[in-house]
Amino acid sequence: MNALSEQILSELRRLLSEMSDGGSVGPSVYDTARALRFHGNVTGRQDAYAWLMAQQQADGGWGSVDFPLFRHAPTWAALLALQRAYPLPGATDAVQAATRFLQRQPDPYAHAVPEDAPIAAELILPQCCGEAVSLLGGTAFPRHRALLPLRQARLVRLAAVTTLPSGHPLLHSWEAWGTSPTTAFPDEDGSIGISPAATAAWRAHAVTQRSTPQIGRADAYLQTASRATRSGIEGVVPNVWPINVFEPCWSLYTLHLAGLFAHPALAEAVRVIVAQLDARLSGRGLGPALHFAADADDTAVALCVLRLAGRDPAVDALRHFEIGELFATFPGERNASVSTNIHALHALRLLGKPAAGASAYVEANRNLQGLWDNEKWHVSWLYPTAHALAALAQGKPQWRDERTLAALLQAQREDGGWGAGRASTFEETAYALFALRVMDGSEEPTGRWRIAQAVARALDWMLARHAAHALPQTPLWIGKELYCPTRVVRVAELAGLWLALRWERRVLAEGAGAAP
């Protein structure tokens, strides 16, 4: 076990040291399909088309069958991309299967917009539906009627826009509303809104209008973004890139949840990242990437990380996202994010600042079982639950909640893991362990024994599935579709396994479920 712990620490060091390349993000069906459609040259992207068809599920749709709300955008986009790829083997059958899938699926946007709707759904889904109807005639596709007023209102506001500043949040969905390349220009990385789909759309318009010398920069960005997927296939791109603030911030925050933030074996790698974050944080805060708009979520987590490292960052960087007693992730956000407010609460408590409003909001957003399950940036309830427990317990070592503990233990599957879908995942099992670590320290002996038993079962499950340097594959993070920020998830997996190993050693040494 000691050898495995050392191996885990070694891999974590390597991951942290690699976080200067813009970030690692798994391949995206939606963005790849949109980029292929805008690229135009089918024969030059045959491998990417083959990859796209290989992702189609047996029912004809794309995306996880466990989370149907997030299947519409990738399925619409893949259908539209493959509709023009008929010369390729299998394309016709794929289009027919996708059409049947969309016809059969209930429309989640027929009457209302779900709280956890994907990014820019009000712009993307009606546009894709309209394109498909015009291409495929009178097919009875879902019309997403509840999104139409939101789309129209957004388009009215966008009609008054001449040029958006580089990194503006609306540029992330430029492919769903932009028509003139003059409304946007590539940022320093060559992207439009850190989005491969938006960048590919902008490039296509720019080529048609021959109006800009910056097409080469967009091409270079798309090539670099493609490499970030580690797929090895030109034209297969991620959902978002770069993530050179989000990736290190969340990775170090995760180390804290596992009790690894101050581990001597990681000290130098952590020091380098902390120094970079400290230098990059300004009064306006930080966004997911250096050249993208600041937001409350990335800013709050950066403040947490800096404070944990002994720095004294100014809370003003977070306060200007405060609206009443809540924190908006971005200005004009459609609905508040639970995890953003969880992270704001954690930052405020670490900094010793008043946080009554954020605390009340976080407490109020639990379900009847005492869990947090209405998150808009991650599809699993285990993610906000682990983070909320850490925030609520900050500075309150005796904080406990039997209702939440009972729900966490009851949610453990027979195989020993946790998961919001049909199967346990390594990432979600790690979040469950982070949550149990918070609760273990204030439990009475019976509760600690129950926790120790659950951790032992989880450890067996994780050991049976652990492989050194494996790349996570399950997309659970919410963007325009579900996606996987590979290094962020891998850090969580490794930290969870390290925590379980240490927990077992402590239990064996003390003969009880002691907190790591």
Would you mind describing this structure in some detail?
There is one protein chain. The chain has 516 residues and is mainly α. The chain has two domains: 2-21 and 244-510, Alpha/alpha barrel (Glycosyltransferase), CATH 1.50.10; 29-227, Glycosyltransferase, CATH 1.50.10.160. The protein is built from 20 helices and four strands. The chain has helices spanning 2-17, 29-39, 46-54, 72-83, 91-104, 121-136, 148-159, 196-209, 215-227, 246-257, 267-280, 296-308, 316-319, 338-350, 356-364, 382-393, 402-411, 426-440, 445-465, 486-510, and strands spanning 322-323, 326-327, 477-478, 482-483. The strands form two sheets. A two-stranded antiparallel sheet has the order 1-2. Strands 3-4 form a two-stranded antiparallel sheet. A hairpin with a 3-residue loop joins strand 3 and strand 4. Helix 18 (426-440) packs across helix 20. The longest helix has 25 residues, at 486-510. The chain is globular and about 70 Å long. The model has no long low-confidence stretch (mean pLDDT 93).
